[in-house]
Amino acid sequence: MGLMLGSSTRQHKGGVNGGISTRWVSLLCIASFFLGVLVVNWFWAVPDSVNSDEEAISSHRHLPKEVQPIVNCGKKVATVQADDILSQVSQTHDAIMTLDKTISSLEMQLAAARSTRADSVKGSLEVTKPGVEQLKQREKVFFIMGIVTAFSSRKRRDSIRDTWMPKGEELKKLEKEKGIIIRFVIGHSATPGGVLDRAVDAEDEQHKDFLRLASIKTTCVHRLYEIWTGPLAEYHEPEHWKFGEEGNKYFRHATGQVYAISKDLATYISVNRHILHRYANEDVSLGSWFIGLDIEHIDDRSLCCGTPPDCEWKAQAGNPCGASFDWSCSGICKSVERMDEVHQQCGEGDGDIWHTSF
């Protein structure tokens, strides 16, 4: 017993004196705790990143599967989608073209309004009293008729004045009440201020029914005519008919005793008159100006018919013609001698114009 106790006492003393102190044990425990915390945090962080990568990879793997039913839904659906796209593109293009035409029309109307305003301010200023100016309001115009004439056609002009064209106060009344203006259109001779110009000036002073074209010389009276019918030359251009017929030196243009243009075309000419080239004949000039425009050409033969008895029959049937025309003479044959006869047999009557509303 005593030996065992003695042996036990020696072991206890040796553990305290020769072993690790309590302070170091505490430090080791604390260090182990922090090390464990770091290790645990590291293990928790790694799975999160791995899980996020796996989720990203999984999403990329599933993405084609989700898109696959929309893209690869069959040739029929793809064709329908392509047709829808083409239809939308076509509708958008049509809308753009419509807007472009609208803008062009508005620009032309604006330019015409500016030109008209400038001309009215420039041409309608009348001095009524010294130092006092008054603007004269223009009457609204419904229709303008220009009769192309020559210096040597005085007798023809007189035959027109003596038949269907009003004179003097009646001509002014026609303009004021009906908005219809009728004028003989002529340019200037090759020698300004010469005998021909003075003769026309004197005639205009008497009748007040001329429209003198400034800076335009009347160099040709006889004209070559084209019509809008007949055999067409074969070109590769679908609208080849605009360029005239085979063997012809002139492109397609309106001609005959009567031809008319719309207000829009008249506005186009007025706005662009400074850059439009003028040829010797006015009908050829109009044809050159309109050949590149998107316009409608109408060959209405009801406005023009032959001389009696052709025009007489139509007048009796209630369908009077706007003008009589003999193809053999490119007009009325012997017009000075026959104008009164044609007017009496084919005209509607001198008083009809005053009882017609427009």
TrEMBL record:
Its cofactor is Mn(2+). Its main location: Golgi. The chain crosses the membrane at residues 21-44. Its EC number is 2.4.1.-. The keyword Iron-sulfur does not apply. It is found in: Golgi apparatus membrane. It is a single-pass type II membrane protein. GO terms for molecular function: galactosyltransferase activity. Residues 21-115 form the DUF4094 domain. It comes from the Eukaryota. Keywords: Glycosyltransferase, Golgi apparatus, Manganese, Membrane, Signal-anchor, Transferase, Transmembrane, Transmembrane helix. Pfam families: DUF4094, Galactosyl_T. GO terms for cellular component: Golgi membrane. InterPro entries: DUF4094, Glyco_trans_31. Pathway: Protein modification; protein glycosylation. It is an enzyme of class 2 (transferase). Belongs to the glycosyltransferase 31 family. This is Hexosyltransferase.
